[in-house]
Amino acid sequence: MASPGHFSAAINNQTHDSVSVRTLDGILTYWNQGAVDLYGWTSEEACGRVACEMLRLGGAVPPMSADDFIAVGSWDGEVEPFSKDGRQLVVQLRCSLLLDDRGRPAGVLSTGNDITQRKRADMELRRSEARYRNIFQTTSVSIWECDFSAVRARIGELAAMGMTDLRQYLRDHPRFVREAIDLTRAIAVNDASVSMFGAATKQDLIGSVGHIWPTESEVTFAEAMIAAFEGRPSYETETRLRRLDGRPVDLLFTTSFPPEAASRDSVFISVADITAHNEARAALLEAQTDLAHAMRLTSLGQLTASIAHEVNQPLGGIISNGQAGLRWLKREKPDIEAAARSLEGLIQEARRAGEVINRFRSLAKNDAPMIEDVDFNSLVEETILLLGHELRRANIETGTNLTRNLATIRGDRIQLQQVVINLVMNAVQAMATEEAVERELTVETGQSNDSIVVAVSDTGPGIAEEIKGRLFTAFATTKPDGMGMGLSVCGSIIHRHGGKIRVAENVGKGARFEFSLPIGGHEK
């Protein structure tokens, strides 16, 4: 086998990558600092070991016979090795055949780049897009996604020629509004739009929006165009559009401009029929406020991420009950009673998921909560019981310190319980990353002057100083695969109830979250 010095030129050119050399039978003979940084094993620990066994690759790399690899001389692909501390990585690996001084196959030179975070980000982006599309398609309100780029380009041309006041320009050139309407193209619509506008398929509505926009409603489009030009996040009014059969329909019309789209090439239009159903008006107000609120925060994607975060637990119950029901029915002698019980559990979890979605919608649109007297001691006990399986599975010792005769507060029980659930689950996930034997969770209640105080403490890794100040903002997270929505939701709920939430100093190791709520209630 040629010495590592024989390959020094190739290795020195790739010092930012992980670089290793192994014999044809897989024994490592060279392991550079990049490999140490990536995988965690020192050169002394790695050299002499079989690469695939040490990295737990589960198969040969390259995934071909030695003769085939010698014939082609190189291989490039993705592998999923494990680091010394047990983390599974995704690595872009390049393998090249090495020859000795006589030109005979002597070993394999491997260089790699860590693409773990990029792959996770790509996967989360696809999941987020799927969640957004699911809500987009299933909501009862008509939603249109439109390409506004051609209109933006025309306005840019006018600005380059000296136009500074779009409103005045539209007064002087009213025909430009119709031109802009015809240039705006629908690129996606949901199912509700098909029925509302009398289309046979979604494709009937794709293309220019001019065929649904009557002349008498051009003022609505003009105002929406001005709102976009002025950088406003949304525009709302009542207007009249027409179905494909020509019949007019009175609508509450909202246009939202995603803040992350600097060019504002995409716009979202949501409409509800206010002539036929009062229910449609209420549905639009809910959907519009959800959409506008989410856009003000970051984007429509945040709304879908929040809902997915909150309904994850009941969805698991739905799947489990559904699978159990199928097993009972597929037995040689079907057990109808057992299957019925599973289906009843499924329905219960589905109702629970629906209830969470309804509560979340109310929170997002700043509606008054469903107010009742809440006993936080019983709420905490119920929550610990609810999460008992998760706590046991994570080998967490749970304790409570509940103040007797704790005053009740006025608030929405489901929303407040969700705060406790989120804080407890955050603690569970934080301690799951720790190798320490002791995993302890403590939930406390107390009373101070005119407020009650609830605290959740754990013995996990704690909170880094640099993130403490933004923990309750959207997408702030300490977890590599976290969405950063849980604490943001907690902060919103507590604020809605007139309370405060914070990261408190913990005695010893771990994190401590505290929130206070006014006795007697505080409704916003």
Key terms:
five-stranded antiparallel sheet, extended, alpha+beta, 22% strand, 524 residues
What would you note in describing this structure?
The protein is of the alpha+beta class. Helix content is 44%, strand content 22%. The strands form 4 sheets. Strands 8-7-6-11-10-9 form a 6-stranded antiparallel sheet. The protein is extended and about 85 Å long.
SSE blueprint:
Elements: H1 8-12, E1 18-22, E2 28-31, H2 33-39, H3 43-46, H4 51-54, H5 66-72, E3 74-79, E4 91-99, E5 105-114, H6 116-138, E6 142-147, H7 149-160, H8 166-172, H9 175-183, E7 185-189, H10 191-196, E8 207-208, H11 218-229, E9 234-242, E10 248-256, E11 266-273, H12 278-297, H13 300-330, H14 336-364, E12 372-374, H15 376-386, H16 388-393, E13 397-401, E14 409-411, H17 413-432, E15 440-448, E16 451-458, H18 465-468, H19 486-496, E17 500-504, E18 512-518
Parallel strand pairs: 13-15
Antiparallel strand pairs: 1-2, 1-5, 3-4, 4-5, 6-7, 6-11, 7-8, 9-10, 10-11, 12-14, 15-16, 16-18, 17-18
